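Lecture notes, part 5. Sequence design as translation. It can be helpful to think of inverse folding as translation between two languages: the language of shapes and the language of residues. The source text, in structure tokens, appears below.
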């Protein structure tokens, strides 16, 4: 019995170090996976779409599709194993004349949504660092 216990303790210890060595805990998993990302995206899109300081109109936008594609994209970028099936970032934002201020409003809304879903500082910074370089694909002026 003691032997079995010892072996199982050793094995679980090894599994822990193997997963640590290979970085098995993806950013997606550390954020909280699908339910947390879905909640964050929902809050983010609702905040930006109704932010009076954002000039961009979301009146004619299919918010359900936007939320689904954004959640899928975040999953793909953070190691959650999804494949992004939405439109190309440059093409989808082209002609919307999104400015820098609007981009940073979205970043602030994302920060707030991550905070209210209890996402820790480290994961928050990692996700923001992945999304920040996309500014040049989205901002036109
Ligand atoms: C890192 C920043 C951003 C990311 C990752 C992002 C991502 C996306 C994604 C995944 C879609 C959906 C694509 C599809 O339908 O296939 C989308 C659409 C859209 N985004 Fe962004 N976006 C960003 C910034 C912004 C900003 C700053 C604005 C404006 C304030 C904005 C406004 C829109 C609008 C209006 C649409 C809908 C376009 C349409 O349906 O015709 N986005 N975005």
């Amino acid at each position: 019995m003691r032997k079995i216990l010892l072996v199982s303790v050793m094995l679980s210890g090894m599994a822990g170090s193997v997963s640590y060595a290979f970085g098995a805990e993806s950013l997606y998993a550390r954020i909280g996976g699908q339910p947390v990302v879905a909640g964050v995206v929902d809050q983010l899109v609702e905040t930006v779409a109704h932010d009076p300081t954002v000039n961009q109109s979301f009146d004619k936008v299919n918010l359900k599709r936007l939320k689904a594609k954004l959640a899928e994209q975040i999953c793909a970028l953070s190691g959650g194993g999804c494949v992004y099936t939405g439109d190309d970032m440059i093409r989808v934002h082209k002609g919307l004349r999104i400015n820098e201020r609007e981009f940073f409003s979205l970043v602030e809304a994302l920060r707030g949504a991550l905070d209210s879903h209890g996402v820790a500082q480290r994961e928050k910074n990692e996700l923001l660092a992945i999304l920040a370089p996309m500014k040049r694909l989205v901002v036109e002026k």
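The translated text above is only one of many valid answers, since several sequences can fold into similar shapes. Confidence is low (pLDDT under 50) at residues 15-19.
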